[in-house]
Design a protein that fits this description.
The protein is mainly α. The chain is built from 15 helices and no strands.
Length: 330
Amino acid sequence: MTDLTAPLADNPAAPRSLRLPVVRISADSLAIPGLAALSAVLYFVNLTVSGYANTYYTMAAQAASQSWPALFFGALDGQGFITLDKPPLATALMGLAVKAFGLSSLSILAPQALLGVATVLVLYLAVRRSFGPAAALLAGVIMAVMPVAVLIFRYDNPDALLTFLLVAAAWALGRGLEDGRLRRALLAATLVGAGFLTKYLQAWLVLPAFALVWLLCAPVSLRRRIGGLVATGLTSRVAGGSRSSSSCRSAAGPTSAAARRTPRSSSSSATTASADCSATGRRARASARPSMGSPSAVPAPVVAHSAATRARFGCSTTSSADRSAGSCRS
């Protein structure tokens, strides 16, 4: 006879269709949703208060949405005449968002906020495997609320993507140290190479620590450790270095050809404005931007923001020679 006073979930005589599923909720199962919610609130709420943020990268993202060569080579304009002083990966990501959703403050900044949420979660997963859920939760919370993290994940500088790639590389290396599989180390090297495509040598700051940890702690023979270091070094070079070099070479080529087609009086301005991979070249390209094409190619808010920035730093806006030379007061 069925005991109707017993709970249906614990009564084996109750019909299976009437048994209630037992849901056990642990603190570990709530950690990932909680961290995702916390970081999403910090990074997404009032995200568009910065407008177009750094208009230098906003213009590059717009150019990337208009032209595939501009996206691949990190050009500042849709014709690919002038390139950025940074590799193209960060602006390419924003360019794809602009291509999908149109140019707006949200389409520029939302990818950065998403990268912030992903960084917090990947850090939690990396720490949990080695030190447990409590330490992982503490690490995730500290990462999410750190003021510098809140800043970079709400702005369109390349640091958001760089941080995510390096944290993901640390996670992949940690997985490789568990079983000694080379493919995990190769994944970490590929992510570091992608970081080089985001902000050059800043991504390589972690390589000495990664190499030393693999050499000392990998659960394989010394010969395989050394072979793994060689393989990962080549992988990181192929994933990042060769592409970055070709990008800088491609930036110089079209400019030189354009300089040969222009009169002698404007050749020096074009050469000065296209000085790639230098801080001086960045100021010169930002000042020479209005001469790249029709003003309607850049949204009015971006133009106004750029003009205000130039005026604040004392950049000349009247003389084309001064604009090409990037004459701004320090």
